[in-house]
Amino acid sequence: MASLTWQDISMKRDFVTHVLQPSRVISAVRRQQNMPLHDRIIPYLETAGLYHLARLNSQWFWVDESLLSAFIERWRPETHTFHMSFGECTITLQDVAYQLGLPIDGVPVSGCLTEFENLMEHGRPAWVWFRELFGELPPQSKVKQMTVCYTWFHERFRVLPADATDETVRVYARAYILMLLSSQLFADKNANRVHLRWLPYLASLDDLGRYSWGSAALAWLYRCLCRGTNRNVVNLAGPLQLLQSWIFWRFPTLRPTGFDWFRFPLASRWDEFVPRNDAGAQRLLSARLALDRLRAHDFVWEPYSSVDVGAVIHPEILADEHRRLWTAVTSLIYFAAIGWHQVDRVLPQFGGVQHLPEPALNIDWLHAKDGRGGDRWFPSYYQEWHQHWEDRLRSVIWVDRVIDPGPSAEYLEWWCRVAHRFLSPDVAFQDPRPIVLTEEACHRGSSQAPPRVHVYDRPDNRRVDRCRRIGTRTTDREWREFADRLEEDVPGAEPGDAVDYRVPRRRGRRPPARPNRRGAPDRGPSEQGDGSHHVPGEEVVGSASAMDRPTFEVGTSSQLFGNVSPHAFSEFTTAAVGIDIDDPVTQSEFYMDIADMLRDDDDTHYRPLMPEEHAQFADQQPRSDDVQAQLAVDLNEPAVSPSDPWFALGGTPASAFSAVPAQPSAPAADHRPRRVRRPPLCGTGGHLLGQFDDDDSDTIEDSD
Fold this sequence. Notes:
This protein is mostly helical and 704 residues long. Helices cover 30% and strands 5% of the residues. It is built from 25 helices and twelve strands.
């Protein structure tokens, strides 16, 4: 064997540092509760269905950030599955039940976030409710909006007094459950604070057992993974111990050695695992390459069917009301985070043969909604998806179990043809990675898709909704045609004159925060118990309200429009705003928007002088004393450099009238005569339409 030369080593080093250089290693944002589990609190945890999760809280779970980053690279938000070289796989409700021991069936974890007194029946102001449940209020230094520092809960409720009364035990149980939910299941990037959204749940400890904590935890994990696919995201929150334990149980070649003994819940098997903390970028390269080299036999489709697992499983998670939902194609709900349980794409994980999947459900609209931008009652706002969960038993699909589960030959042929299976460059492999149909896959034959309830797609229609508003491309074309009609009535206008229809664009500004209902800005908790709450700013959307302040105007629009007959609007109806052709134009929304703009334009204070060609308009404009003198510049001269700005519809900006103009000199003889530029008419207020920006100002983010 020929030895490697220095040049070969240098080329391999350059390949590692440049070709396979990872874009990022996501950092895990987690917080340990670090509160002892007292014997008198355990009955409340068992009633709530959170006792097995509390047992995981005794140890700190370290996560391999490089390994998780490699899996996030293969996560697809469209299907909520990992795209591997051998097919698709994902975390299901079955994994949540085995790994964390959480109940699956129950009421969805939903409601509202902060405005309990306004959106809930028998609701109370947040801080009033907080003092009733915990007996006191945290100091102002430990409060930020609707969150409380972890340190205050840890210092105040860590040790239960030995002579505590039953009511004191209930207070400490509420604090423990609040910390448990905020740190183990539903941790967010605000890792050092606890949100008050759990107050309605803690008000009745006896009813905590009727909620589906498993589906809520899976919905939140799906949402965190979908966020992690954004290349600009560098931090990852959520139940990461569930993700890592799922990887170790499903991929034997990736699990650490020396962890053969386990107990229930199964995630406790890795409670003493400590990953390496050096060269995270290089370990990401190794993990990425290891995933590319995986074959179908390297993935364990049914890791929970062994006898050893059956010996430690608690029977309550195998109850029929929970187990039958493992194969339900339904919604997953955690307040504003809505996911979709697409187990029909991973049937081998339930002992079946994977068929050609149906098109994935498009829920891009749900990915854009995550709670920020105004509190609301989510069961009503997401009524359709809550109804899917209510009908969850109808969405359970039947899985025909086989001895050798896995993808069919038809599926593998389709997957190798359409999927992006490998992320590493080809030079990282010794073989050309051909499409190989294993003998086992050929013996499985084909499989038919099980029948399921049809669900309609919910794409992100924000762009479509904006197209229905005035000021978009459709209505701009109508404005151009309307301006051409007006141009025919202008004295001295030439038919071939070019008209500049470019419209200035300005991003909508967010209005200041509204005061609370007592007329004062929102503050933290008070010792008097007044329930103040945070009122976020209004949503910024592109509508007619954004046209109240034009960038610049020419004269008074109602005066300029005086020479045009109102019947000129009769041919300019538009289907974009839903106007019926037979309706009177003056009663249409299109005409009313124009009338509002005309009234608003009467308040303009700029009165620039008009050229002689438009003396009939200048006579109607009273001279204003607040208009400054003109600059010494000839606006009829063309731009001399590409950096000079152009003047859009609406006339000359007011900044051009700030000094006394100098007398323009006569044009030189060698200069070509130039036509005097006529300011285009804008009597309809159409120059205001450019203030709409094609942004996503109605996006609602998470309330962390």
